Amino acid sequence: MRIPLSWLADDLDDVPADADAVGEAFVRVGLELEDVHRAPEITGPLVVGRVLEIEELTGLKKPIRWCQVQVAPDQVSGIICGASNFAVGDLVVVALPGSVLPGGFAISARKTYGHVSNGMISSAKELGIGHDHAGILVLPEDTAQPGDEARPLLGLDDAVIELNVTPDRGYCFSVRGLARELAASLDADYADPAARVEVPAADGDAWPVELADAACPRFVARRVDGVDPAAPAPWWMQRRLLAAGMRPISLIVDVTNYVMLELGQPLHAYDAARVTGGIVVRRARAGEKLTTLDDVERTLDPDDLLITDDSGPIGLAGVMGGATTEIAGPGDTVPGGSGRIDVLIEAAHFDPAVIARAARRHKLPSEASRRFERIVDPQLPPIAAERAAQLLVEHGGGTIAAGRTDAGAAPAPATVRMPLELPDRVAGVTYPPGATVRRLTQVGCAVELVTGEDGRGQVVATPPSWRPDLAQPADLVEEVLRLEGLDVIPSVLPAAPAGTGLTAAQQRKRAVSRALAEAGYVEVLPFPFVDPAAWDALGLPEDDVRRRTVPVLNPLDAERPALTTTLLPGLLDALVRNRARGFGDVELYSVGQVVLPHAQPVPMPDPGVADRPSDAEYAQIRAALPAQPVHVAAVLAGDREPSGWWGEGRAAGWADAIQAARLVAAAAGVELRVTAAALAPWHPGRCAALRVGDWIVGHAGELHPKAVEALGLPPRTCAFELDLDALPLVENRPAPQISAYPPVAVDVALVAEAGVPAADLADALQDGGGDLLEDVRLFDVYSGEQVGEGKRSLAFSLRFRAPDRTLTSEEANAARDAAVSVATERHAAVLRG
């Protein structure tokens, strides 16, 4: 929102002349200052000129005009100009030789196109007072005389403040709202411009209106007859529109834009002769189309709110009007030959969500929709319509027709009650007596002081119609705090109790992350949201619990509208991006929360903010929240061991993913059991279930080729994912006991059925070896004719050690035989000869 200081001065006294001071005043009350546009730097002669003659030069690639311009009562200058939006008799702004325009653009007499051009006829952009460079700035007649100094006329000394209005401050999309905020910041007297508009009583309706949808709770129509569409808007109005960043177009359009900027109520003007029958506000029907004012035919959605007459849609409510009822502009032919038209003014109130959806659906943002989707004062429609009608009468020669339609009504405001000292308690500041009442009054609240049941003072505030966001005591507290100044609230950090440090879970999480980083993995923070299509790409069955997600009401990315139940989709996206940027060998990991919803929805309570929730409410909130366990996952692709002068590298494989999971478990102080499994998205023959005891805590292995293809992953991409919270939390780990006595290593080769997992054989050997067996390691697998069809030989290295003596060979062999015996008993394994 751009606003010149002179416009703010209409509504409050003593506006600081220093634009920086005004910007700081807005910042103090919570508005975001984008920029301060100071007066453009123009030196030298800048005058008003009248165009006396225009000669169109021919034989050129673009239109060029040789103009004779009166730049003083007794001086005419010849000027070359490429614009064509002005005519003989028009008043223009001329920069004479010796002047310097913004940007250091020096003007001099120079020969061009066969003529000596003595100056430049200027556009608004060249003068630094607007953004329109399409044509010359043409001043209304009787604005000035040729030779008059142009600087005061153009308001070049008027600085412009540009503010970023956040969605919760929609009332600040107007001079009315910004002046009120500035007055509160400066403690200055404020005069509401809406209160200056007299709305006389009117008998009857100006036009039949039916509200057929609740998304339009109020619609006001006012008619002005006999308006001259060719009449220019007064220069003071055009100058303010230019300063606000809007291009003057015609009197009727400029009036609607001016009132919108002044009061905050968007308006729309119809050519009453083109409106057929009564107006009906309704939703679109299937197949309906509307050609909007930008000459685009749009297919309407059933959610679109329309302004219609007997002919069909004539406007997309709150967004843009239709071409069929467009007001004739300057130079257009007016039906009937009278040269004047009857104007029907619309001032309505619409549901913000409906307007926001329509503007986004049709990719049609407008100044009107920006305001409607942020909530417009529902009491403004009759005031804004009357203000626009008065301006059309004053400057367009029209006559206000009898009657005013005011269909519907503004919602009644609800009162809010809060303890008088609540702002002091929340801020930790003792404010001066009366501060709460004074600040709430400044924002427009009607305030009453009462005594509560506890004998303490309470504030009963009725929010103004333009502040529907003031719905609870916390909202009133926020207003008091921001207007009193957030800078006066002390910033005091709570004292940290000594000796607590990190919790055991936090220490484990850091240890796991550090272990993976030391092993060569790189930590990433993937997007915590997921696209439902990712489940199909990963090959998850339709009944897989991981498909059941928690949707986000207002997602950051419309394509990822739900919280993820697994870390793999985000990690695999990161892997694809890294590979696309030239990283061939990638090992990524992430430690983060996933969200697992309840099988059946649990109602969430909505406790008030006046008091702390009760224990029962806390318990209900905790029960309603979905489970959010911490997972750790990693993905690998390319070479795990790089190639070099020492030889060829080694590609990452499923064993590396399992080893990474073992590394995580070791850092957490637990030991994993690895067993064969089959779970999407892993390859069914290269997938391992990771267990603590008999409890599955994760999976690891090579991804399924179909998932690899669907996601665009490198061949044989591997991954693991563990539920870190499912691992037993070992808070007090015993110090390892190291034996000073030498170990005895014994190798055994067992022949078993090919389907017997190696991990099961290792477990059997471990159980049979007893306390003396320190380690079991598989070092060879063989299958062939020597072991028989359907069988395979697995060679294990067994390490025995006693804590208090040197083992004899007899003791070691006895322990070995016991280990083999258990393997034979459980899996029919035989010792290979």
What attributes characterize this protein structure?
833 residues, alpha+beta, Phenylalanyl-tRNA Synthetase, Chain B, domain 1, OB fold (Dihydrolipoamide Acetyltransferase, E2P), 7-stranded mixed β-sheet, 6-stranded antiparallel β-sheet
Describe this entry's structure for a reader:
With 833 residues, the chain is an alpha+beta fold. The protein folds into six domains: 2-39 and 160-196, Phenylalanyl-tRNA Synthetase, Chain B, domain 1, CATH 3.30.56; 46-154, OB fold (Dihydrolipoamide Acetyltransferase, E2P) (Beta Barrel), CATH 2.40.50.140; 209-408, Phenylalanyl-tRNA Synthetase, Chain B, domain 3 (3-Layer(bba) Sandwich); 416-464 and 471-487, Phenylalanyl-tRNA Synthetase, Chain B, domain 1 (2-Layer Sandwich), CATH 3.30.56.10; 504-594 and 629-726, Bira Bifunctional Protein, Domain 2 (BirA Bifunctional Protein, domain 2, 2-Layer Sandwich); 744-831, Alpha-Beta Plaits (2-Layer Sandwich), CATH 3.30.70. Helices cover 25% and strands 27% of the residues. It is built from 21 helices and 44 strands. It has a seven-stranded mixed sheet with strand order 29-33-34-40-39-38-37, sandwiched between helices. Strands 3, 4, 5, 6, 11 and 12 form a six-stranded antiparallel sheet that branches. A hairpin with a 2-residue loop joins β38 (682-692) and β39 (695-703). The mean pLDDT is 91.
